[in-house]
Design a protein that fits this description.
The complex is a heterodimer of chains A (549) and B (348).
Chain A (H helix, E strand, L loop, with lengths): L6 H25 L5 H7 L2 H32 E2 L3 H7 L8 H12 L4 H10 L15 H26 L2 H9 L4 H12 L1 H17 L2 H5 L5 H12 L2 H27 L1 H4 L11 E2 L2 H32 L1 H4 L2 H34 L7 H7 L6 H24 L13 H25 L3 H9 L4 H30 L2 H6 L7 H10 L7 H33 L1
Parallel strand pairs in A: 1-2
Helix pairs in contact in A: 1-13, 1-17, 1-18, 1-19, 3-7, 3-10, 5-7, 5-15, 7-10, 8-9, 10-13, 12-13, 13-19, 15-25, 17-20, 17-22, 18-20, 19-20, 20-22, 21-22, 22-25, 24-25
Chain B lengths: L3 E10 L2 E11 L4 E5 L6 H9 L6 E6 L2 E4 L12 E4 L11 H6 L7 H14 L15 H14 L4 E5 L7 H18 L2 E6 L2 H7 L2 E6 L2 E6 L1 H6 L4 H6 L4 E9 L2 E4 L2 E4 L10 E6 L4 E5 L8 E9 L4 E7 L2 E7 L10 E6 L5 E4 L1
Parallel strand pairs in B: 3-8, 3-9, 6-7, 7-8
Antiparallel strand pairs in B: 1-2, 1-4, 4-5, 9-10, 11-12, 11-14, 12-13, 14-20, 15-19, 16-17, 16-19, 17-18
Helix pairs in contact in B: 3-4, 4-5
Classes of the chains: A mainly alpha (549), B alpha+beta (348).
């Protein structure tokens, strides 16, 4: 056999290596001893931080299960008033950044907030000693806030898993004498176990990565530790070491996720999708189901949004200002650039995968996708490491001939762009891979046998057929970029703000009212994928039907 | 237009020999069928000819132009090969006319559209050029696929199970149509299938493949009546083996009585076995004489135009169609008679 490297392999492998470099640098940096800062942290607060992180993660997981599992079962198998609407509405909280929901509830529930004022006036209490009221700005408070916005992952995955199971299994179980509840625990739940564990691993990673809530609630976790170590002690090595601990967690969650998916093919095959509902709930139970859905939705979405709208209306003159437009424009621009880079790179990487029959060419895509698991703060440190090294080298070299150019990589938009691409590349890789598999390989062969080169096949056949997939990927990445906070906080250049960092600063200053329009804008943009995913599901169904004719 | 030559072709995949030292030649305007069970390497062979996979070793040449050997591997787009796929591989975002014109390179618009019109009328799809593939029936899609593969006058046409998605009722009509089109265009073709009936109907010559090797090649008649291996005989139709002794003069002695062959038998008096197909067996009511050829009816099925009897013969079972009025029943003893036919004799 002849050995040769194609153009496509060059592009794919370069992308894979560049996007993996930050992680590699981080791992090496975390192995360098740093007696001063890290040993100090190790001997004092690090164990508390780790413990808090643990409690936070498991609290969020438990609460997410309590909310999402019943919701998923109700929506998948039962018929009750408003079910069709709840199916998508229950996904809405996903659009809510944690720093906004945390701020809103603090404002609502603290001593000077409307709830306590109302309680005091109703019961005639005079001061805090007269009554007990919980403090939202605590670790349990953070758990509730984060679970309220992360439960939709479990809800969506569990609901889909239930739908993919054949209703006939549950029907068979009932014919054999088990009640609806027993059938759920004996059949549906065990069958969906793999999906549930995978969803929980995802939620665990997101919960660990959360920076805004714990920072705002002054709960110290590993995420805030990374942030403080870098901005407080300026020790990249110590920050990298803490990041290393978080990486171990991430690795654990990823392995659990992989492991739980391993058996999926065996256990969850033969999904028959029929729209027939399994249970029609009685009037009373139907009402209770509707009530439960409403309560979750009201707390997780409608209260925060209406309060934001309230702020926006009463503080319109201050919030509707040039800052909003400048930062919105900067955010949109950054998000658009990142989406474009991610989609273009993954198009080439996945195309190379398809072109090459060798499994070794799967590696660049897998490597480049690892960044998705990095928490924002960890990612920021990881990106700074190679870029500051590069800056040093460039400055040293150029400094021999002329004035040093300064931090042209780590101090500019390059850093934040690279960080976002590393973090969100996996989204486009996954989406475009899925779109590619829907194109029959025989189309490639047909095009090649008719005299078209791989490049011509890509542009004439794949590109038009992948348009929808690429658009979906770009949109999903765009929205994630708009929401991403911790990496932006650490990496943004001196005079640069995204909407998220802008909003978060006002949150930290307890003045969200003044940035309420920006906050609403972030929420609205976050709602787009929900609409888009629902409508593209519908049209995918339509396409399937039209090809089956 | 061209002769295809494959010599000592090998393809290894993850330690398995998918193609094992395969050699094959195809003459001018000849349609050759690679026939075999799934996984026997027939589609892989097709892909190697097209250049869609790179063989481990071996020679492939068309019209004396080498496409593959130790030093050369020509990319698929430079081979001028037409290929028709099992799922037709019509580009869903292009119209029928654009699909047919896809392979017409470097031609001016007028020549191109003339050729497209010509191809549309060849496959009797006049006026459907502006439709999209999903607006056509399965049979129409298939005709677009053949038009597309022939439009740029390929030096050879490869067909990968093209009829497997077609309803049984119209399949043989389509096979006839497409065979006529290929013969009209005077192009040689390799056709891959696992169906003996399609292979017999479509091709001039057959090559039976098994585990990456060609076991035997020849015309349908040759393979059917002179199989060189048991595998070939079995693949071309159900049957049973009975021990037989060759007595000379085209006569055999078996435990079911004497069998006469209607074709010459090579060789001397030897022991071996005969492969007997159901159509060469007839059943008769049991005679009073104790006959060595008496068998038991194991089951009986009414099929409308005929009855199917399942009988057992020395540990083997076979189903025999009979146009009688269902005279035998489960458990009946009947006399079995082997009719004179061109026998398949395998020497032990």
């Amino acid at each position: 056999m002849r050995f040769s490297i194609s153009r496509w392999q060059c592009i794919a492998w370069s992308a894979g290596i560049i996007l993996t470099l930050p992680l590699i640098f981080l791992i090496f940096e975390s192995l360098i001893p740093d007696p001063e800062v890290f040993d100090h942290l190790w001997n004092t607060v690090l164990w508390d931080y780790t413990f808090n992180t643990f409690v936070l993660i498991f609290g969020v997981l438990a609460l997410s299960c309590l909310i999402a599992l019943p919701l998923g079962w109700l929506v998948a198998y039962c018929d009750f008033p408003g079910k069709k609407q709840f199916e998508w509405a229950l996904m809405l909280p996903l659009a809510m950044p944690t720093y906004i929901i945390a701020y809103v509830y603090t404002d609502l529930l603290d001593y000077a907030g409307p709830v306590q004022i109302w309680l005091r006036s109703t019961f005639n209490w005079q001061n805090p000693d007269d009554y007990w009221f919980f403090d939202i700005r605590t670790l349990p408070g953070a758990i509730v806030m984060i679970a309220l916005v992360l439960y939709p992952y479990l809800f969506l995955i569990f609901k889909t898993a239930l739908r993919e199971q054949s209703f006939k299994l549950v029907q068979a179980s009932q014919l054999m004498g088990y009640s609806a509840r027993q059938s759920f625990f004996k059949v549906s739940l065990p069958l969906a176990r793999g999906s549930i564990v995978a969803a929980l691993a995802l939620i665990a990673m997101e919960a660990m990565a959360d920076f805004a809530t714990v920072n705002y609630f002054a709960v110290s976790t590993l995420t805030t530790a990374v942030y403080d170590t870098w901005l407080g002690y300026y020790s990249l090595t110590a920050a990298a070491k803490i990041s290393g601990i978080m990486l171990l967690f991430v690795f654990m969650f990823l392995s659990i996720e992989r492991f739980s998916r391993r058996n999926k093919a065996v256990h969850e095959r033969g999904g028959v999708n029929n729209d027939a509902m399994l249970y029609t709930l009685s009037k009373r139970n139907g009402f209770l189901a509707t009530l439960f859905c409403c309560v979750v939705l009201i707390f997780a979405f409608f209260i925060p949004v209406s309060i934001l709208v309230g702020y926006a209306v009463s503080y319109f003159d201050q919030a509707w200002n040039s800052e909003f437009f400048i930062y919105a424009w900067q955010s949109l621009k950054l998000a658009a650039i990142v989406s474009f880079i991610c989609v273009a790179l993954s198009l080439f990487v996945v195309f190379n995968q398809r072109l090459s029959a060798k499994s070794i060419d799967l590696i660049p895509g897998r490597m480049a996708s690892m960044g998705y698991a990095l928490p924002g703060t960890v990612l920021a440190i990881a990106v700074l490491l190679p870029l500051s090294l590069l800056d040093d080298a460039v400055n040293q070299f150029v400094g021999q001939f002329m004035e040093e150019p300064g931090l042209i990589f780590s101090g500019t938009l390059v850093a934040i762009t690279l960080a976002y691409v590393v973090r969100f590349y996996a989204i486009s890789q996954g989406t475009i891979e899925a779109s590619f598999t829907r194109i029959s390989p025989s189309l490639d062969m047909a095009s090649r046998s008719m005299g078209k080169t791989p490049g011509q096949t890509l542009s004439k056949i794949h590109f038009p057929l992948l348009r929808r997939g690429m658009l979906t990927a770009a949109l999903l990445i765009f929205i994630e970029c708009m929401k991403e906070l911790p990496a932006a906080l650490l990496l943004r250049p001196f005079d640069f703000e995204t909407l998220a960092t802008h909003v978060f600063q006002y949150v930290s200053d307890e003045q969200l009212e003044l940035a309420s329009i920006s906050a609403l804008f972030i929420v609205l943009v976050g709602l787009l994928p929900l609409y888009f995913i629902t409508s593209s599901m519908e049209s995918a169904k339509f396409e399937e039907e039209s090809t089956n004719e | 237009m061209s002769d295809l030559l494959i010599e000592k072709l090998n393809f290894d995949y993850q330690g398995n020999k998918v193609i094992d030292n395969l050699s094959l030649t195809i003459g001018k305007n000849e349609i050759v069928c690679l026939l075999g069970a799934s996984g026997c390497g027939k589609t892989t062979t097709l892909k190697a000819v097209a250049g869609l996979i790179e063989p481990s070793s071996g020679l492939i040449s068309i019209s004396n132009k080498t496409f593959n050997d130790k030093h050369v591997f020509v990319a698929p787009e430079k081979r001028n090969i037409g290929m028709m796929f099992q799922d037709y591989a019509l580009f869903p975002h292009l119209t029928v006319a654009q699909n047919i014109g896809y392979g017409l390179l470097d031609k001016n618009k007028k020549v191109k559209s003339e050729r497209i019109t010509e191809m549309l009328s060849l496959v009797k799809l006049e006026g459907l050029g502006e439709r999209y593939p999903h607006q056509l029936s399965g049979g129409q899609q298939q005709r677009v696929a053949i038009a597309r593969a022939l439009a740029y006058k390929p030096s050879i046409l490869l067909l990968d199970e093209p009829f497997s998605n077609i309803d049984h009722q119209v399949r043989f009509q389509l096979i006839e149509d497409i065979r006529r089109i290929i013969k009209d265009q005077q192009v040689s073709a390799i056709f891959v299938t696992h169906s003996k009936d399609e292979a017999f109907a479509f091709s001039d010559k057959l090559a039976i493949m098994h585990e990456g090797k060609i076991i035997q090649q020849g015309t349908a008649k040759e393979l059917f009546y002179q199989p060189k291996a048991k595998m070939v005989a079995e693949f071309l139709g159900q049957g049973i083996y009975i021990d037989a002794q060759y007595l000379g003069d085209s006569k055999f002695k078996t435990l079911l009585g004497k069998v006469r062959s209607t074709q010459e038998i090579d060789g001397d008096k030897q022991n071996g076995s005969l492969y007997i197909r159901p159509q060469h067996i007839s059943l008769k009511p049991k005679s009073t004489v104790v006959a060595e050829n008496s068998v038991t009816i194991l089951s009986k099925r009414f099929m409308g135009t005929r009855y199917i009897y399942r009988i057992g013969i020395s540990d083997q079972e076979i189903e025999i169609a009979s146009t009688d009025d269902g005279q035998f029943d489960h458990g009946d003893q009947v006399d079995l008679n082997i009719l004179p036919h061109p026998v398949n004799f395998f020497i032990n």
